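Hi support team,

I submitted a single chain yesterday and got back a structure, but I'm not sure I'm reading the token output correctly. Could someone confirm the output below corresponds to the sequence I sent? I've pasted both exactly as they appear in my results page.

Thanks,
R.
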Amino acid sequence: GETVQLTEDAYVHLNEGVELFQKHLATQDVNADGNPWKVERDTGNLRVRYSSSNDNSCRIFHVIFRVKIPKSFDLNVFIKNLMDMPNRVAWDKSIKSAKTWSTYDSPLDEDISLSKSSGAKISYELSEYTTASAAGGIVSPRWFLDARKYILEKNGTSSCVTIDASGTGLVQPESGHVVAKNYKGGASRIQRIETLEDDFEIWQHDSIAHCNIGGWLPTAIVNRETGGAMAGTYESMLLKLAEGGENSIVPTSTY
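Hi R., thanks for writing in. Yes, this is the structure output for that exact sequence:
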């Protein structure tokens, strides 16, 4: 069938999302709104922080971890395969179903000229997924429709920026589900931060999530569930990564 392309608005919002994501992580101390980052939990393998938003009562979460991998290991391919929504259904108990409507190279002039000048690869995706009910049934199933922008830079830095596309009308919500929304500024990024002498490298992963899971739930439950779900998902991912023989997790106590 024909590729479902994103709307003009979605492209604009994704670009704004890139800027906001960078502002959230511009300093160690405060988010893009100038509000302080506080540690929600530190498992030793990863750290989850949260901060408040000036726009709504939903917390903004940040997950950080570092891994030591051989130069020959392609972390980008590993994470992309693992985090691909249809793949996540297999290992992430919180994701009930998923469908990727389209993935395509950017048709936009500004992206194409950036690719030519910098060697960056830019692509877009429309992703639909549902979450299972949680907290013993208190949280009913949720439906998400995300527009995504993937940026793979020449130096290996890779980002996936996400914004809500539920309002675009490109896909109708699934009945019996509450529509949830990922606010602007949400993204994941991996970058090489150190090259060691023994053909190993240290890579850092940063994810920001600012999500409104909708419905009538008290904000405290939403915030607790979101923080817990993020920690669980990334901890599972890290354990899968560390299964790969030479790969190891850098303890959070060292940074």
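A quick pointer for reading it: The chain is about 25% helix and 35% strand. Let us know if anything else looks off.

Best,
Support desk
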